[in-house]
Amino acid sequence: MLSALDEEGRTVHLLGELPKKQHFKCPACACPVRLRNGPVMRPHFAHVSLKGCQYFHENESEEHLSLKSSLYQSLAQVATVHIEKVLPHLKQVADLMVNDKLIIEIQCSRLSEERLRLRTKRYQENAYPVLWLLGKNLWLGKSLSALQKQFLYFSQNMGFHLWELDVARKEMRLKYLIYEDYHGKVHYMTSVCSFEGDILEFLRMPFRKQGSSSYQIKMDGELLTYIQKQLYHQAPKWMLLQEKAYRSGGNLMTQSLDDYFPQLRPIESSSGFCQIRQDLSAFRSAFFQYYKNQKEKQWQTLYPPAYYQKLSERSRHLKG
User: Fold this and answer.
1) How many Cβ atoms from other residues are within 10 Å of residue 217's Cβ?
2) DSSP H helical segments within 76-127, as ranges?
3) Is residue 52 classed as helix, strand or coil in its secondary structure?
């Protein structure tokens, strides 16, 4: 924690000069906290015992504290920012609240999907837009975990995207146009903003009017061999796809490589996406319709959802 109540009930922050030694309390639960100032971690407050606090579930890491401080200092230059905003009606403490509305949560450690959904739902039901920004342990790698899928956002300009924070480089990254291939590998583009830049404007990027981005990926010529091996080893994902094919009178083993085009596809989640509330069916339909009649199937060019849907609407207009 970077804030606490002093003996006179005033809120003090550890963003500048340290307060004098005294008894401090948690601003959320009023339980005792200690000011810690050692050689390993930056100055911070820590609960004497977390048992009596319904707001904080664990003491924060050095990464979390540093990122929270850096973002506050950056955003405070262009907006009204509250650090560790206590929201009693939600029984939650937001890492940062911007302009009395936007909630920013910095997540550096893994948590259960259930807890993530609950925290997100509380914000959404109370008309607080929330952005989850991910620390190092949750950065996007070669594939998306079930938990990482619950941090995904979606916009017409940038498709599936998520946010990363890098305390060492002092930068925020936006990974966008995220698509997944049959191997489960993700492909995407990246945009970066320094903590010294206009972070608030960068956060608006997915919804800002801009030119259409795209990238091209060569299709896997050995995909059929890969699928055969997956079926031989009875990989659950591929056994389900084979069962689906059987029900429609098909067989994955007899399909050609072209039948699997496009190999990169929109992200799917069996449990849905807790940050995404809009219906994605129109996007998925326009996506597959676009590639249906593509003659060149050795390469796939990936575009934002707006691109596919614009072409789909144009096609319906011409037919009408």
Assistant:
1) 16
2) 113-125
3) coil
